[in-house]
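User: Could you go from structure to sequence for me? I need the amino acid at each position, not a summary. Structure tokens:
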């Protein structure tokens, strides 16, 4: 197997030009050009000479939002929204671009949550958007009010201490370098890696 790999490695890169979707006579011209010693090292993959993006582009421009990639102070980043149960085990995930607000994840994860008590930090202090809908469903909300709110909302301070469970889960999730630095290009693959790491954390 090692010898086969070395043999494949010796092929020049322009030998793969016939794999492009071109007419048959273009492929023959490309094969003959390999032995002619042309100065072009990488064959042009366009179908014609018009100005257009290369045919080998993996995704369209402006597709970063669909892959949960956004701009923040650290550059390109992705925000992971997670819910955990009373034991600190993950129960839901959602990905958004790094500059997205935390409430975008709450809109997805907390809309139909089976939990009877929702504990979150001040970033989720949205009375009409989040708290009142949870109250209408009979949920107990343990979310402190922001300092800018004129009317402070009472909350159970002892129960709020259990919020460390979500922080502990993130600390264990960041131990996986592929998750902490996002090795995967697509959001689907990245979310799959998160589920795999979370399953290991769950079973630990």
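Assistant: Here is the amino acid at each position, in order:
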């Amino acid at each position: 197997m090692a010898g086969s790999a070395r043999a494949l490695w010796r092929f020049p890169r322009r030998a793969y030009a016939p794999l492009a979707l071109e007419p048959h006579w273009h492929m023959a011209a490309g094969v003959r050009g390999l032995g002619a010693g042309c100065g072009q090292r990488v064959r042009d993959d366009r179908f014609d000479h018009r100005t257009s993006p290369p045919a080998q582009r993996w995704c369209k421009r402006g597709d970063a939002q669909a892959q949960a990639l956004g701009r923040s102070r650290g550059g390109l980043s992705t925000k992971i929204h997670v819910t955990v149960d009373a034991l600190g085990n993950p129960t839901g995930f959602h990905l958004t671009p790094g500059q997205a607000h935390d409430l975008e994840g709450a809109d997805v994860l907390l809309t139909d949550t089976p939990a009877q008590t929702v504990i979150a930090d001040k970033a989720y202090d949205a009375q009409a958007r989040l708290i009142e809908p949870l109250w209408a469903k009979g949920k107990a909300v343990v979310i402190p009010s922001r300092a800018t709110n004129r009317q402070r909302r009472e909350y159970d301070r002892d129960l709020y201490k259990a919020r460390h469970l979500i922080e502990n889960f993130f600390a264990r999730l960041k131990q996986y370098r592929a998750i902490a630095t996002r090795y995967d290009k697509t959001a689907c693959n990245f979310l799959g890696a998160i589920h795999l790491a979370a399953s290991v954390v769950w079973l630990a």
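One structural detail worth keeping in mind: The longest strand covers residues 75-84.
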